[in-house]
Amino acid sequence: MHTEGKTQKEISERIGCSQSAVSRHLSGKSVGRKKCGKKRCTTRRGDRTLRKIVEKDRFQTLGDLRKQWTESGVETSRATVHRRVLLNQKQRQKRLTWATEKQHWTVAQWSKVLFSDESKFCMSFGNQGARVWRKTGEKEMPKCLKSSVKYPQSVMVWGAMSAAGVGPLCFIKGRVNAASYQEILEHFMLPSAEKLYGDEDFVFQHDLAPAHSAKTTGKWFTDHGITVLNWPANSPDLNPIENLWDIVKRKLRDARPNTLDELKAAIEASWASITPQQCHRLIASMPRRIEAVISAKGFPTKY
């Protein structure tokens, strides 16, 4: 196109683009422009090095992993190490998609969600055991297993919370399968919903554990007319009840129970001391959690 003698405005109107784009083109600044967005702080080769470090010893602390990665020539933060280890690309994309879909949910909408989770409580609170870095399907690999003594004893607990407070706890006996989980829903989730919502509608949240996602469990929810919130895998940072478990465990360190019965009593007392105000503040953090996941492009967040 002949442009001699024409102004940038005339050229932009004729070809249908902005004057700034025309200006960049004519000045040559549009060639080789830098990409927008945050620069990736590690290379693919560096990520492969981290995976090899993790595979040598699955029980290293985050600080140990970072130290070894730094010694290999990759200078980065603990947060970056955490992001690179825990989630694969598919999981990160699902988290990002989910967060984008929920980006405009209000606190009032999140207040309609009954959040639930299971958590393990041990008799010894000074040492909760070493963390193992593994992916799905690696649970039984010899490198991911570490010998330990039979004690301290522990209990598994199911609980639920909303912006209005907490529901009754369930102490779980044995392994949870679809049938036993539905018993928990019948005898503890429904009373929780009755206590926190009365006759109002609510949406139930749980993670993607096999017992939760079983077909018979799905039928249970359908038969009871309960809507279940779709949930991304490996996303404890999105569930505010995780913060309540942390509160209870901190209190138990001071209580220091000596028997299983004392442990259960201490858990129930700590859980009962959680106020509706605490719960409401956690639910009010949901929009910020969503934004954090979007900003992190699906990687784990500070929550």
Short structural summary:
With 303 residues, the protein is an alpha/beta fold. It has helices spanning 8-15, 19-27, 44-56, 62-71, 78-86, 89-101, 107-110, 178-197, 210-213, 215-223, 241-255, 260-272, 276-284, 286-295; strands at residues 113-122, 154-162, 165-166, 170-172, 203-205, 227-228.
The largest sheet, given as strand count, sense and whether it forms a barrel, is: 6 strands, mixed
Query: What fraction of the residues are assigned to beta strands by DSSP?
Result: 5-15%
Task: Characterize the quaternary organization of these chains.
Answer: single chain
Enumerate how many helices there are, as a single number: 14
Order of SSEs, N→C? HHHHHHHEEEEHEHHEHHHH
- The low-confidence parts are 30-37
Would you tell me the overall average pLDDT? 83
Question: Based on DSSP secondary structure assignment, what is the total number of beta strands?
Answer: 6
Structural class: alpha/beta
Give me the Rg, rounded. Answer: 25 Å
Q: Name the shape in a single word.
A: globular
Distance from N terminus to C terminus (CA atoms, Å) equals: 55 Å
Helix content: 40-55%
